[in-house]
Amino acid sequence: MGYAQLVIGPAGSGKSTYCSSLYQHCETVRRSIHIVNLDPAAEHFDYPVAMDIRELISLDDVMEELGLGPNGALIYCMEELEDNLDDWLTEQLDNYTDDDYLVFDCPGQIELFSHVPVLRNFVEHLKRKNFNVCAVYLIDSQFITDVTKFISGCMASLSAMVQLELPHVNILSKMDLLTNKKDVEDYLNPEPRALLSELNQRMAPQFLKLNKALIELVDEYSMVNFVPLDLRKESSIKYVLAQIDNCIQYGEDADVKVRDFDPEDDDE
Ligand SMILES: Nc1nc2c(ncn2[C@@H]2O[C@H](COP(=O)(O)OP(=O)(O)O)[C@@H](O)[C@H]2O)c(=O)[nH]1
Ligand SMILES: [Mg+2]
To answer: Is the keyword Translocase in the record (predicted)?
Structure first.
């Protein structure tokens, strides 16, 4: 049985930085992990790249030869990946053993969930190859400053959840940048009724019914569960990883001991 994280979320939410911090953490604790670049537009890496979509297709070549802009070229590259999925993945996975732990650093375009089924098919392939896969959805904590942005972030995450049908962990990234932790505290473990009342205050009266439906949806999908990630703190990375490991049943037999992460805690 192999294990995999699919690291997704909007562009700039901190996916590649998370992957690199995760790699460093695993190096420190002597745990084997391989990071895969699935972003054809990525140019710079702070982690050793185990597999690279750019070896299959180059964004620059597509832009030049087909005269596409960066977004169109990215979708073209991902469709190319989809067309060659079985061959590419089989060839790449040949270098790994059955119980390896892979982390896929994905592009951030919302089109990957709304327009093309490539990530879903990618996941299906991984499952067929006996991988336990978890979606790790990053949202930048800088943007979760009021209830409307929170709901909007939840909806984006939900669209990925519906598309991928995977165990799902939501992460609130860049906690180090928050000057006032109170700004997000309300959203780390919010009470649906409090959310609804805040939403109703912010929106015009004609949205009352919609607000209620949105909060119910968010509540029912157990979405209201964000794990804060502060990359300065080893304990925070450890906690996030433990949540994900739990989702994919990694190390079930091992005695994994992780204490709860407290955002106020200084690092040990
Ligand atoms: N302060 C801070 N900056 C971060 C963090 N994570 C990412 N960044 C910055 O946010 C920008 C986008 O990060 P990146 O990992 O490339 O995002 P991606 O597009 O989701 O892969 C970069 O300038 C990073 O240095 C974080 O935890 N703290
Ligand atoms: Mg990236």
So the answer is: no
Enumerate the β-bridge partners of residue 100: none
What number of CA atoms fall less than 13 Å from residue 108's CA on the CB side?
Answer: 12
pLDDT of amino acid 257 = 44
Q: Which of 130, 134, 160, 97 is nearest to 4 (CA)?
A: 134
Q: How far is the CA of 106 from the centre of ligand 2 (A)?
A: 7
CA of 16 to the centre of ligand 1 (A): 7
Say yes or no: CB of residue 14 within 6 Å of ligand 1: yes
Mark whether 85 and 211 lie in a shared domain.
Answer: no
Give the pLDDT of residue 268: 44
Ligand 1, closest atom to CA 42? 21
Does 98 contact ligand 1 (Cβ within 6 A)?
A: no
> Tokens 């049943």, residue?
249
Give yes or no for residue 176 CB within 6 A of ligand 1: yes
Averaged over successive runs of 10 residues, the pLDDT of the chain (268 residues) comes to 95 97 97 96 94 94 94 93 92 87 94 84 93 96 90 90 92 92 81 92 95 91 82 97 94 55 54
Atom 13, ligand 1: residue with shortest CA distance:
14
Range of the domain at 208: 190-224
Task: Quote the pLDDT of residue 166.
Answer: 93
For ligand 1, atom 8, the nearest C-alpha belongs to: 14
> How many domains, the chain?
2
What global pTM score does this model have?
0.91
CATH number of the domain to which 141 belongs: 3.40.50.300
CB atoms within 10 A of CB 190: 19
The answer to whether residue 260 sits within a structural domain is: no
